[in-house]
Amino acid sequence: MDNGQPPPREESNKGQEEGNSLDWLLRKDNAEIKPAPMDTNVLMSRQDPDVAPNTDGKAFTRERVFNAASQGDIAQLHGLLDYLRVNNKRLTSPEFTDEVNGKTALLKALLNLKDGKNDTVEFLLDIAEKTEDLENLINASYKDPYYKGQTALHTAIERRSFDHAKLLVQKGADVQAKANGKFFQRDAGTGFYFGELPLSLAACTNQPNIVSFLMENPYRRADLTDRDSQGNTVLHSLVVIADNTTENTDMIERIYDGILIQHSKLEKERKVQLEAIENNQGLTPLKLAAKQGKIGLFKHILHREFSDEEMRPLSRKFTEWVYGPVHSSLYDISSIDTDEENSVLEIVVCGSEIPNRPEMLQIEPLHSLLNDKWDRFASKLFLMNFLVYLMYLIIFTTVAFYRKEGQPPFPVEDVPIDYLRCVGEIISVLGALWFFYKAIIIFKRNPPKFSFLYTDGFSDILFFLQATLFLICAVLYVSGRREYIAFLVCSLALAWINVLYYSRGSKQLGMYNVMMQRMILVDLLHFLCVYSVLLFGFSAAIVALIEDHPPGNKLGNGTRGRSFGLEPFKCQKPSYNDIKFTTLELFKFTIGMGDLEFTDHVQYKEVSTSCSSCT
């Protein structure tokens, strides 16, 4: 709103009121244009509210000018030019701008169009030109943090008024002005990101006529290489607003291709490749589409093919021949193959959080590229890695099995078996260091999250734990602590479990391994959480029912089931009064290995039997 704060929920969340989509921005008819969230008819002046605005025609106040601009009534502005000249004022003077957000009468008029028109716009521009204030007025922007940088040209484009946008450019509007307020940033919540620039706004709101005019007008052409605060060009902005719906994707494809074609016609020498420009994250539009999972636009860019000979260099797909349903095509794999840093293929394969990732890998040329790499060398490298790991695992297991007993560290004796053991220990440590380093590199590229477990991160985390446990074991061994054995056996168990990682080299075993991981992390994990609560609850109930001595035995001190007198030492079986022992016995009972012998020492056998049955 005008006070620089986020607009009220009912005004700002247009997308939510219209189905959480961008349909309100993609409309082609604007017979009725709702007030913009940065506009209000509530006066923000600091004067006494009991004092009515001066409308006697002798003096012009900001409220009077703003009211006339919002109503589109030129009659109320007659005499304004003379008033400004007599008082040496301009439309950008503090008296005629909103002190809270810097809004001018021109912005007010553009925010209140009726049938796409407001007669006061041209009238105000004429006054500004006669008072030598045209450039300042036409490029005046909001000053508050929320809508900072929005100019009259942005407003005219957002209001979908081609005539006013054309007029503003003719009068000298800055076509590179950037609206970089909080409302226009990505992840703004209640805002709308369009790339800050007027050209990007026109493109993202499906106004090809304004896009074409900004690119070709004889006054000042828009620079397509200009980038916003995030380094995004107009092509990046189109990728960002894509949502994979059919209507949205078709619209963006038309605008995207139209910009490329028009730019190619204007720049015959093609000194600048628009699709090669990277944003602040080092992503081109194609890479950004891959990273954000915009599969519709991503597929279109990869399969873009122009039949026109002049536009053919813009194609990424070239059909060699067609015979009925069969055809052969060549693809431009620049920035796609892994021979380039941060390639599209690497982004999709390693991006565990990318939506539609499996479907994207089925798109040509990614699908053929992956298959070709696997057939040529990747399968052989994978097999070699498996054999090396198997040799490492055999050495690791042998070292753990033939470890020395006693207080570590153990000196190396002058016998062959000790030398072999020492070499095996060194190999085990070096292998653990390698797995640890490799895991850190992977985590640095893809920071681990809980969702990471459901994709590639399951095996990566297991390898990391294996290496970490063994390195802790090595430190304890050198420090002379016998506890190193506990970490050694845990690391060894994980090392054998990690053999399953290499099952992905087989299509059948790989699918089964992934299925088992999902079952463990989803179904089995949920079951264990519920079962643990039930097991502990019923164990506590049974402990409360157990009596160590029959009811007929009364102890002299009155203590139930316990005696503090001096008695001969007796070897006693574990008691069901112990919560740990009871929990273990109930678990055995759950898997069919327990018995009901403890019911002889309970107060209420029926209750204890019910508790046991429930577990």
Automatic annotation (TrEMBL):
Q: What is the lineage of its organism?
A: Eukaryota, Metazoa, Chordata, Craniata, Vertebrata
Q: Where is the composition biased (Basic and acidic residues)?
A: 8-17
Could you tell me where this protein is found in the cell?
Answer: Cell membrane
Q: Which reaction does it catalyse?
A: Ca(2+)(in) = Ca(2+)(out)
Query: What is the name of this protein?
Result: Transient receptor potential cation channel subfamily V member 1
Segments spanning the bilayer are 381-402, 417-437, 458-478, 484-503, 524-546
Swiss-Prot/TrEMBL keywords:
ANK repeat, Calcium, Calcium channel, Calcium transport, Cell membrane, Ion channel, Ion transport, Membrane, Receptor, Repeat, Transmembrane, Transmembrane helix, Transport
The segments labelled Disordered in the record are 1-22
Q: Which GO terms describe its cellular component?
A: plasma membrane
- Membrane topology value: Multi-pass membrane protein
Q: Which Pfam families match?
A: Ank_2
Q: What are the recorded GO MF terms, alphabetically?
A: calcium channel activity
GO-annotated biological processes? calcium ion import across plasma membrane
Query: Does the record carry Metal-binding as a key word?
Result: no
Which Gene3D superfamilies has this protein been placed in? Ankyrin repeat-containing domain
Tell me the domain of life: Eukaryota
What InterPro entries is this protein classified in?
Ankyrin_rpt, Ankyrin_rpt-contain_sf, TRPV, TrpV1-4
| ANK-type repeats, residues | 148-180
